[in-house]
Design brief:
Blueprint (H helix, E strand, L loop, with lengths): L1 E5 L5 H13 L4 E4 L7 H11 L4 E4 L2 E2 L5 H15 L5 E4 L3 H8 L6 H16 L5 E3 L4 E3 L13 E3 L4 H10 L2 E5 L3 H18 L6 E10 L3 H16 L2 H10 L4 H4 L1 E3 L1 H14 L3 E6 L6 H15 L2
Parallel strand pairs: 1-2, 1-12, 2-3, 4-5, 5-8, 9-10, 10-11, 10-12
Antiparallel strand pairs: 6-7
Helix pairs in contact: 1-2, 2-3, 3-5, 5-6, 6-7, 7-9, 7-11, 11-12
Length: about 300
């Protein structure tokens, strides 16, 4: 049972202090969002020098604005800077972000991501890549820094095509807002089938959800509603929520007292998750106490 947390802190110094604390408490992983400290790879490079055993990972880096060859070189630079590995979680993001923020086409996200992962996974495996696809071209000879430590690759996959990609070309998938029923009925079967047919090891399924220990369930759901409403409008999240039988993202959040939250987290593992990534959020008039209760409940699951 592996349990991780969202990297927390408004400055790099705070991120480092938090990482050292959760590592000391036995948590398995710390996940850095794409906006962390402006660039999560910079934050990971610094945090990785101050920690030794906790897994650090991105959740997730957007593929569209960064060429896979550049992405691989960035990963190599981070590994070289901290002299240990980290986990590279990537995903295609969403049409509204890619079109509005970057002015790029989002016409073929499945194909685009498959080509991207084909290139990136080869580079991270130490291969020389010569590839010319419909969306990406890469010729890596003399253009790739050597990796002194392996970098596992996870793909944000919420639909069959990318689950196949994650199972055949990567080390698994990293999810957000995927409830246990969706993992059990859609994600785990598709991912395991793809990995098995490709002769690859059992893939990881890192399941991320908002989590809060609080006695008043309605108050807890109200606290997450503002942020979660965003996911209801995104087709990728809408698909996985529908697969899990949830009408809104608020319903998928894991909330309740210690016993209830523990059972809901265990349900993710029972559904096929290998890791749980808890996005702890505060509730009520005493947010520090709320977060402390959540933290302690998660810590208790570490055994």
């Amino acid at each position: 049972m592996r349990i991780g947390l969202t990297a927390s802190g408004s400055t790099v110094d705070e991120l480092v202090a938090y990482a050292k604390a959760v590592e000391a408490d036995g948590f398995n992983s710390l996940w850095f969002a794409s906006v962390t400290a402006g660039d999560p790879l910079a934050a990971i490079a610094i945090t990785g020098r101050a920690t030794s055993s906790i897994e650090l990972g991105t959740a997730v880096l957007q593929t569209y604005p960064c060429h896979p060859l550049l992405q691989a070189n960035r990963a190599a630079s981070v590994v070289n800077a901290m002299n240990r590995s980290f986990t590279l979680g990537i995903g295609p993001s969403h049409e509204s972000v890619v079109v509005r923020n970057y002015g790029l086409s989002y016409d073929h996200p499945g194909r685009n991501t498959e080509e991207y992962v084909h290139i990136l996974s080869g580079l991270l495996s130490g291969e020389v890549v010569d590839f010319e696809g419909q969306d990406w071209i890469a010729h890596s000879k003399h253009a790739m820094e050597p990796l002194v430590h392996p970098v596992p690759l996870l793909v944000s996959a919420l639909a069959p095509r990318l689950l196949r990609v994650a199972g055949t070309m990567a080390h698994g998938t990293i999810l957000w807002m995927a409830p246990a029923p969706a993992i059990e009925s859609l994600i785990a079967p598709k991912l395991h089938e793809a990995a098995s047919l490709a002769g690859r090891p059992t893939p990881r399924i890192v399941a991320g959800l908002p989590v809060a220990v609080h006695d008043d369930v309605n108050e807890a759901r109200a606290a997450v509603a503002g942020a979660a409403a965003f996911y209801d409008r995104m087709p990728n999240y809408r698909r996985v929520l529908d697969a899990g039988g949830y009408s809104t993202a608020v319903e998928a959040a894991i909330v309740g007292d210690e016993g209830s939250v523990t059972k809901q987290l265990q349900a993710l593992f029972d559904a096929g998750a290998t890791d749980v990534w808890a996005g702890a959020f505060p509730v009520g008039d005493n947010p520090k106490e709320s977060l402390h209760r959540t933290y302690q409940a998660l810590r208790g699951m570490l055994g």
